[in-house]
Amino acid sequence: MTETASPSTDPIVPPATATVSQAPYSAAYTRYAMLLLLAIYTINFLDRSIINILAEPIKNELKLADWQLGLMSGLAFALFYTILGIPLAQLAERRNRPMIIGASVAVWSGFTALSGATTNFVQLVLCRIGVGIGEAGCTPPAHSLIADYVPKEKRASALAFYSMGTPLGGLLGLVMGGLIADAYGWRFAFLVAGVPGLLFAALCFFTLREPRKILAEHSARITSAQATFRETLSYLMKKKTFWLIALGAAIKAFIGYGHAPFTASFFLRVHSEEIARLASMFELKSVGFMGLALGLMGGTAGMISAWLGGQIADRFAKTDLRGYVVVPAIASLLAVPIYIIAVSVPSASVALWILVINGLLGSLWYGPVYAIGQSIVPPHMRATTSAILLFVINLIGLGLGPTVVGIISDIMANGVGLGSAQGVRWALMISTCFGVLAFLLFWMARKTIREEMES
C-alpha cells in the first residue's frame, strides 16, 4: 500500500521515511500531486494578482482614485477570502480535500473571467469578491494535504515548493496581463486568465487523492480525533510562537500586497520617459514592458527565494528549530534599506535590478512560517490552523496593505501636494519600514519555538 522512496535531494517530493503515516503514496504519485497543487496555486495567484498590472489602464478608463485601486485589489478580496477560509477549512478536516480544492478553482476562475465584462467600479469589486470566495477553499486544505503527503522533516521544503505558486503566479499575471492588455485591452486579459482554471479543476476532481483513509488505517488517533474551530483556536491561544510568526508574516504580507498594485504605477509615473524608451527597444508599450520586466525579474527572484527559504530552514532546523524563524527575521530586516534604495535611485533600469535583490529576500518566509503552522498542532487541527494563519496574514496583509498604501499615496499626492508620482514613491517607502516590526516579531519567536512544536 505504501512505497518508500529512496533518499533524494529532489525539492519537489522529500524522501519518505519508515513511518507509514508519513508516506501514504508512492514517490512518483506524490511528485505528481505536488506539481498539480503547485499549478493550482499558481493559477490562484495569477487570477488574484493580474489586476496589479492592469491597475493603471483600469484607473484611467473607469476614472478611479488610488484608494479605490487599493480597495479593489485588497480589502474587497481579502474580507471574503479570509472569513470564508475558516468554515471551508473546518469542512476540509472532515471531507474530501481534493473535491473542495477543485470546486474552489472552478469558482474563482469563473469570476476572474467575468471581471472582463464589468463596466464600473462596483461591478469589478463584486467580481473580486467572487474571486476571494473561490480562493478561500484552496490553501488551507492544500496545506493539510501536503502535511499528510510528505515526511515531517521535509515539511518546510514541501510547503515552500507549493508556495512558489505565489511568485510564479505573480510572474505569469504580470507578464501575460501586461502583454495582453497592450494588445487587446485589460478586459480580454481577465478572460484569458480565467480559462485555465477549469482544466485544473477537472484534474483535481479526477486525479488528486484523499489520503485520510489510508492514514486512518495506521493511526487510531486520526480516526477518532476531531476538533471544532473553538477547540483549535483555544489550543493555539497557548502557542505564543504561532501568534508571533502569524503577525510577522502578516506584516510581510502587508508590505508585499501593499506594494503590488502600485509598483508598476510607480515606474509608469516616476520613470515614464525611460520606461517608454526601454519598451520601444523591445517593440512594446509601457504597460506590456512593465509586466514583462516585473514579472520575469521579480517573479523569478521570488520563486528562488521561496524555494531557498524552505531548504535553508529545513537544514538549520535539523539541529535547531529556531532556524525556522531566524531565516525570515534576517531577510525582513535586510529588505528594508534595499527597497528604499530601489525606489529612490534616478534610473528605472537600476531600480529594477535592485528590486531583484529585494525579491530574493521577500519570499524566504513562506516555507518556514507555513511549516510551523502545520507542525505546531496535531494532524486533525492542521487545515483549520492553516485557515487561521491565513486569516491573520491576509486580513492584515491583503486586506489593509493595498488600501493603506493607496490612502498614503493619495494623502502625499493631494494633501501634502507632492503630486501623484512622488506620492506613490513616498507611500512605498513609508510602508516598507514596517519590515523592522516583522523582524522583531520573528526574532521574538526564537524564545518559544523549541518548546511549542507539536507534530
UniProtKB/TrEMBL annotation:
Membrane topology per record: Multi-pass membrane protein
Subcellular location: Membrane
Keyword terms: Membrane, Transmembrane, Transmembrane helix, Transport
Major facilitator superfamily (MFS) profile domain segment(s): 33-450
GO cellular component, one term: membrane
Any one GO molecular function term: transmembrane transporter activity
Pfam families the record matches: MFS_1 (PF07690)
Domain of life according to the entry: Bacteria
Keyword Transport appears in the UniProt entry: yes
Transmembrane segments annotated in the record for this chain: 32-55, 67-89, 159-180, 186-208, 242-267, 287-309, 321-342, 348-367, 388-412, 424-445
Protein name: MFS transporter
Provenance organism: Phenylobacterium parvum
Lineage of the organism: Bacteria, Pseudomonadati, Pseudomonadota, Alphaproteobacteria, Caulobacterales
